[in-house]
């Protein structure tokens, strides 16, 4: 059985207020001016560390369209601060996963959630390569839960409107 962590696709996130690693108040209100990209990392995750140069580049590229909030999933507050400083994440709000509402927990990293400015969860999934980050944005652009679901639609026989749940489940676990 594959676990599908975090908020459900299509779910409307609600307004939330918390504190980032630097003690600053963070307020998430919907609707908002831009989309929101929640980027889940762990200081204990080698893949997260290897992904950081590509992730920072991706975050810069989407900055006109989406605000990024980084969420740390594991480690002490001090370790998370050191990781954030070492990887130049301090220009973004860095949150501890425990600070988020319980339904937003993903439990693993690296993971991304693309939220429309209205608060609707458009796309989500593991993002252990640059292509996965771009895939989340592209899926959100097309109104699809994953880019893999587009491929499943293209290979489905004409007139077949059934949902290929295995393709979507596999995509979410990538």
Which terms summarize this structure?
5 helices; alpha/beta; 5-stranded mixed β-sheet; 174 residues; Glutaredoxin; disordered C terminus; 7 strands; 21% strand; two-stranded antiparallel sheet
Describe the structure.
Helices cover 33% and strands 21% of the residues. Mean pLDDT is 83; it is low at 161-174. The chain has one domain (16-173): Glutaredoxin (3-Layer(aba) Sandwich), CATH 3.40.30. With 174 residues, it is an alpha/beta fold.
Number of helices: 5
| Average of per-residue pLDDT values | 83
Order of helical and strand elements = EEEHEHEEEHHH
Q: Do you know the CATH topology?
A: Glutaredoxin
CATH architecture: 3-Layer(aba) Sandwich
Low-pLDDT segments, ≥5 res: 161-174
Would you state the CATH class?
Answer: Alpha Beta
How do the strands of the widest beta sheet line up side by side? Answer: 5-4-3-6-7
Strand content: 15-25%
Give the fraction of residues assigned to helices: 25-40%
Q: In angstroms, what is the radius of gyration?
A: 16 Å
- The helix/strand class is alpha/beta
What's the story with the biggest beta sheet?
A: 5 strands, mixed
Please give the domain count: 1
């Amino acid at each position: 059985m594959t676990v599908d962590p975090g908020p459900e696709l299509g779910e409307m996130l609600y307004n939330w207020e918390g504190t980032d690693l630097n003690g600053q108040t963070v307020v998430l209100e919907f609707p908002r001016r831009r989309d929101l990209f929640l980027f889940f990392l762990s200081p204990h995750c080698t893949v997260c560390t290897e992904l950081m140069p590509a992730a920072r580049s991706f975050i810069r590229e989407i900055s006109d369209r989406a605000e990024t909030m980084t969420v740390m999933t594991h480690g002490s507050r001090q370790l998370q601060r050191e990781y954030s400083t070492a990887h130049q994440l301090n220009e973004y709000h860095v949150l501890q996963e425990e600070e988020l509402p319980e339904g937003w927990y993903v439990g693993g990293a690296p993971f991304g959630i693309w939220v429309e400015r209205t608060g609707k969860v458009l796309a989500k999934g593991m993002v252990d390569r640059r292509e996965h980050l771009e895939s989340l944005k592209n899926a959100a652009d097309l109104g699809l839960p994953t880019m893999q679901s587009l491929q499943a639609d293209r290979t489905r026989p004409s007139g077949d409107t059934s949902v290929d749940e295995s393709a979507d489940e596999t995509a979410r676990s990538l």
